[in-house]
Write a structure and sequence with these properties.
The chain is an alpha/beta fold. It is 37% helix and 19% strand. It has eleven helices and twelve strands. The strands form two sheets. A six-stranded mixed beta sheet has the order 2-1-3-5-6-4, sandwiched between helices. It has a six-stranded parallel beta sheet with strand order 9-8-7-10-11-12, with helices on both faces. Helix 8 links the parallel strand 11 and strand 12. The protein is globular and about 60 Å long. It starts with 5 loop residues before the first strand and ends with a helix. The structure holds 2'-monophosphoadenosine-5'-diphosphate. The site of 2'-monophosphoadenosine-5'-diphosphate (ATR) has 15 residues, from helix 6.
C-alpha cells in the first residue's frame, strides 16, 4: 500500500444512505490530502472481528453508525469521557500501537451547529426542552450540560426512557409527560427535537406549539426535509431556528482532524453537495 495514502471509513449496516463519504471526500479534496474515505457495510456479527483488522490494514480511523455505536464502545481500548457518558461511540481512531480510541462527537456537532449559526446563544442562558430519549438525546444532553445548562426538561413518548436518562445525567434534568409539552413551552431558551418525528417517511410532528415564545431558539436533528414542520412553525412564531444538517457536518470535524491532521471548513458548497 502507498505509504502516504491515508484511509478512513464509515461503518454501518446498511451504509449506502450515509452522507459521510461525500463530506469527507469534499474535505480531502479541499485540503489536497492523499486519502480516501469509504463506506463499509459490516454486519453486527462481523463488526468485532473486522474492525481491528482494518486497523492492522493501515486505516487511520472510522466513523461508526447504526447499528454499531454500542459495539464500537466495547471494542475500544480507550474511551473518551463524553463517549462514556453518552454510552456510545461514533468515531474510532486507530493508533499505530494497536490502540483503538473511541469518541462520541455527536454532542460536539449539535452544539457547534447552534453556536456557529447563533453566536450569542449559550445553553446556560435558560431552560431547554429536549423531545426524545434515544441515542441522539443522550448526546444532546451531554453537550447542553457541558455548555453550562442549569435546567433541562426532557420528554419522551415512552416516559421510562426519559426517566432512565435523568438517572444517568443527574439533577439538572427534569422529566415531563409527553402529553404536557404544550404546558412547558413558555420561557424556554431552547427547544430541541431529537425524535424521528417529521422525518421523510416517519410520523408527522403534530404537537401543540401555540405557546411557543419568539425568545426560544428551536433546532431539529432531522434534516430530511431541511426545514421540518417544527422549524416552519417556529419560524412563523418569530423564533430563531437551526436546521439539522449542520449537526451532521460538525460531528465529522473531530475525526477528520485526528485522522488527516487538518481542520476542515464548512462551506455553503458543502451543504449543497450533501443536500443533493
Ligand atoms: P436515535 O438513537 O437516533 O435517537 P432512537 O433510539 O430510535 O433513535 O430514538 C427515536 C426517538 O424518537 C425515541 O425517543 C422515540 O420515542 P420512544 O422511545 O417512545 O420510541 C421517538 N419517536 C419515534 N416515533 C415517535 C412517535 N410517533 N411519537 C413520539 N415519539 C416518537
Amino acid at each position: 500500500m502507498n505509504e502516504s495514502l491515508k484511509l478512513a471509513a464509515v461503518i454501518g449496516h446498511p451504509i449506502s444512505h450515509s452522507k459521510s463519504p461525500k463530506m469527507h471526500g469534499y474535505w480531502l479534496e479541499q485540503n489536497k490530502i492523499n486519502g480516501h474515505y469509504i463506506p463499509l457495510s459490516i454486519s453486527p456479527d462481523d463488526f468485532r472481528r473486522l474492525v481491528p483488522e482494518l486497523a492492522k490494514m493501515g486505516f487511520v480511523g472510522a466513523n461508526v453508525t447504526i447499528p454499531h455505536k454500542l459495539s464500537a464502545l466495547e471494542i475500544a481500548t480507550k474511551v473518551s469521557d463524553r463517549a462514556q457518558l453518552i454510552g456510545a461511540a461514533n468515531t474510532l481512531t486507530f493508533g499505530i500501537d494497536g490502540e483503538i480510541y473511541a469518541d462520541n462527537t455527536d454532542g460536539y456537532g449539535f452544539i457547534t451547529n447552534i453556536k456557529t449559526t447563533c453566536r450569542d446563544w449559550a445553553a446556560s442562558d435558560g431552560p431547554s426542552l429536549v423531545l426524545g430519549a434515544g441515542g441522539a438525546a443522550r448526546a444532546v444532553l451531554s453537550a447542553l450540560l457541558d455548555d453550562g445548562a442549569l435546567q433541562i426538561f426532557i420528554t419522551n413518548r415512552t416516559r421510562s426512557k426519559a426517566e432512565s436518562l435523568k438517572r444517568d445525567f443527574g439533577d439538572r434534568i427534569t422529566v415531563i409527560d409527553w402529553a404536557d409539552i404544550s404546558k412547558n413551552l413558555d420561557g424556554l431558551n431552547t427547544l430541541i427535537n431529537t425524535t424521528s418525528l417529521g422525518m421523510v417517511g416517519k410520523d408527522k410532528m403534530d404537537l401543540d406549539l401555540k405557546n411557543l415564545s419568539s425568545q426560544t431558539l428551536v433546532t431539529d436533528i432531522v434534516y430530511t426535509p431541511l426545514e421540518t414542520e417544527l422549524l416552519k412553525i417556529a419560524s412563523t412564531k418569530g423564533c430563531r431556528t437551526v436546521d439539522g444538517l449542520g449537526m451532521l457536518i460538525y460531528q465529522g470535524i473531530p475525526g477528520f482532524e485526528k485522522w488527516f491532521g487538518k481542520t476542515p471548513i464548512v462551506t455553503p458548497e458543502l451543504r449543497e453537495i450533501l443536500l443533493k
